[in-house]
Write a structure and sequence with these properties.
With 275 residues, the chain is α/β, with parallel strands linked by helices. The protein contains 9 helices and 11 strands. The protein has one domain: Rossmann fold. Helices cover 29% and strands 23% of the residues.
């Protein structure tokens, strides 16, 4: 007598908002319609609402080589005051965002050790053409390893900011995190459609990435007090103008924190997912 057949339990394949359900007998390609987790907050002159479950805060370049006194910038005599200014804001905002169920993505410089994919423009602009200035992948006088090489001390997050195991990490080697990287693929596979931008520098990597995100169809918000730059104030004013005019919206950490505090605790998605 044959033993009774055991009915297979469907498994989930993919991220929560972009998953199949199935087993060896059948597969459903229907994505589950997850109820939106609505987060409402102020964005300058208007009220804003996003789906927290489909949103990520993208923290750009908060790394030792930019923000630590003994990093690449600091050892070159660059004033890192502006680079460090977002740290306390992000140290409060990121854990609250994560605890509420939002995704956190750290977007960091992390170049190849051999610098083989960096064109002359990148090399030149990093040093101003001065051979005495330490460039990408080179070692500063107080040696902490090659600057901004993936896996090095300089490419790591600066003290005061901590990544959690569930956070996402993408390395880049241009001002825009979308160029020649897996950033777009990671976001789309996770079902993320709305991006909130923070980090440094407002007018360089933050803006370049935000602009490309808008071109690719993402909803974009700039968290103004979670960003900074050593550039003159009028440069930041111009970036804010362009974001408002062309690419998205501007908010601040105070508005987000108040909205996050008012949310009920998130439902554990594993309680609904088939295993």
């Amino acid at each position: 007598m044959n033993p009774p057949s055991r009915q297979a339990t469907p498994h989930r394949f993919g991220a929560r908002h972009n998953a199949w359900q199935g087993d060896t007998q059948q597969v459903s390609l229907v994505r589950e319609a997850t109820p939106p987790r609505r987060l409402r907050f102020a964005a300058e002159d208007r009220a804003m609402e996003i789906d927290l479950g489909r949103s990520a805060i993208v923290v750009v370049d908060m790394q030792n080589d930019f923000c630590h006194p003994q990093g690449w910038f600091g050892q070159r005599g660059i004033d890192i005051t502006a680079c460090r200014r977002p740290i306390p804001t992000l140290s409060r905002l990121v854990p609250a965002w994560r605890a509420a169920g939002g995704r956190v993505l750290w977007l960091n410089w992390g170049i190849r050790a051999d610098r083989a994919n960096l064109p002359p423009t990148i090399h030149y602009k990093a040093t101003g053409g001065d051979p005495a200035v330490v460039g990408y992948g080179e070692v500063s006088p107080e040696d902490h390893g090659p600057s901004l090489v993936q896996g090095s001390w300089g490419a790591a997050l600066v003290d005061g900011l901590d990544a959690a195991p569930q956070d996402l990490l993408v390395h880049k080697h241009r001002l825009s995190g979308f160029f020649d990287s897996d950033l777009d693929g990671v976001l789309r596979a996770q079902g993320i459609t709305t991006l909130l931008f923070a980090g440094i520098n407002t007018d360089r990597c933050v803006y370049s990435t935000l602009q490309d995100a808008a071109f690719l169809g993402y909803d974009c918000l700039l968290v103004r007090d979670a960003c900074d730059t050593p550039s003159p104030a009028h440069v930041t004013d111009a970036i804010h103008f362009l974001v408002r005019l062309l690419h998205g919206f501007i908010t601040d950490s105070t508005a987000l924190a108040a909205a996050l505090d008012a949310l009920p605790p998130p439902i554990d998605p594993t309680m609904k997912d088939a295993s």
